[in-house]
Amino acid sequence: MASSSAFDLGKASFLSKISFAWINSLLRLGKSKPLTLDDILSLGCEDEALFAFEKFNDAWREENGKNSVYSKNSVFRAIERVFWKNLVLAGILILLKTIAVAATPLLLYAFIRYSKFETKNLRKGLSLVGLLVVAKVVESLAYRHFYFYSRRIGMRMRLALVVAIYRKQLKLSSLARKRHSIGEIVNYIAIDTYRMGESVMWIQIGWAYVIQIVLILVVFSVVVGSGVLPELVPFVICGLLNVPFAKLLQKYQTEFMVVQDKRLRSLSEILNNMKVINLQSWEENFKNMIESYRRIEFTWLSKTHFMKSYSTILFWMSPTVVSSVISFGCIFLKSARLDAATVFTVLAALRTMSEPVRFLPDFLTSLIQVKVSFERITSFMVEDELEHENIV
């Protein structure tokens, strides 16, 4: 009873696409019996690895024809050329969700102000309820579709790079094979392509959260007036303190990947020459060498996680500091009355801002990891290849 994913998505009605009702048949089948491989919806042609690779390969050739010398951003530009329309659509979806989330504290402020009126305007009350419903529906639908769509784009990107790396390693020259062992190539496929596929969602969420923080600051300025100015101080301090953390984190992440590649290269060479090692009784020496690489690897990994924890603690403290600073600003600058409307709106805005602030360290970590992965894959993709007449 396998059906085509392309048919389900392409022929589904607008409401079915909006509500994801096209997958209901599979969910009902899974409720009635354990699913088998034949029951799973097959991929549409646009989601297949070969289709994604062909589009990436065309973009890579255009990049190759345009630049005689490759740069460390060559793979990134080829990916951007293939998926830029998809990334723009995903960006629009997450932007709609961000605007809807940022509008919620203002709607709460309007509701509380409306409840204080002695004479209630029914039309205004219904308008506020309607706006709140629309905001929540837009927030929910936009985020669900963004999540689905960004995961789909990430899958296509990952598949294209996996096929490209596999085909590249078949054509590597002898010198290039010495520079990139089998273990390193497996790392490119298993780790680096995975990170780049995941980055589609995390990077989009990252810039959207930055916009969300800016919008929440605008909400604070509307509600508390000039009392929002002292609030900018902790944000500036956190931003300045995070710059050296980000630089050190990138350095530690790069060193960790370099040591990991050395260990995998040594391990691959040991496995290929196991007979000679056993014959000469060198097992203990090579075991000690691998363990020394592991200790160095663990050292860089520990430094990476310690740096991430420092950055996380710094950002997790921000909402508490910001709330204290806002109270200070309202009291001493007398910019707004601390009535129910102001207090509840500020609390709602702080709650809305807390998630982006706590996510920023993870976003910076993901950004650094993706940058390192792009550079590693680019260094592999630009290696010399065998001439066509020499390939058997």
TrEMBL record:
Organism of provenance: Buddleja alternifolia
Residues that span the membrane, as ranges: 87-114, 126-149, 205-226, 313-334
Protein name: ABC transmembrane type-1 domain-containing protein
Annotated ranges, domain ABC transmembrane type-1: 88-369
Gene Ontology MF term list: ABC-type transporter activity; ATP binding
Membrane topology per record: Multi-pass membrane protein
Signal sequence residues: none
Primary site of residence: membrane
UniProt keyword annotation of ATP-binding present: yes
Cross-referenced PANTHER family: ABC TRANSPORTER C FAMILY MEMBER 8, ATP-BINDING CASSETTE SUB-FAMILY C
This protein's record includes keyword Cell division: no
Compartment(s): Membrane
Cellular component, GO annotation: membrane
